[in-house]
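INTERNAL AUDIT FORM
Audit reference: QA-55
Scope: verify that the stored structure record matches its stored sequence.
Auditor: D.O.
Record contents follow.
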Amino acid sequence: MLRRLFLTPLLILAWHAGATAASLVEQYAESAAKEANAAYQRTPPDDGVTRSARAYAAGGTLVHEYVLAIRSNVTERELQTWRASVRSEVIPQSCAFLKNDQFFNSRGFQVRYRYINRSGQVLDEFTVNKPACQGL
């Protein structure tokens, strides 16, 4: 709610200033990234595996990136099980959070989750968008 109170005047001003729909979504993603980073600084992830978290905007997409400390000998089968578990938890929660978001519903805003190891290797990456939320 607080985010909507802050963003609404900003977006109204941008709209009146001649901003395109695409730039409005990009501004929205940038603002959401700043808000997420502030939250990560206030309360860093503390699950024993996540070493750091950050958020950034990539166009009209909010990207959450998590650096995980995992064993070097983790098997692909273990990763597949972990991926399925993470997705089954994160996607429904994100969809529930975004279901009333006007930028998500009508302007193409989406959220990407990116999990990497300490060497920068991508362990999993997926996007929560309208098609991902259909039927949930």
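Auditor finding: record pair retrieved intact. The first helix runs from residue 2 to 16.
Action required: none
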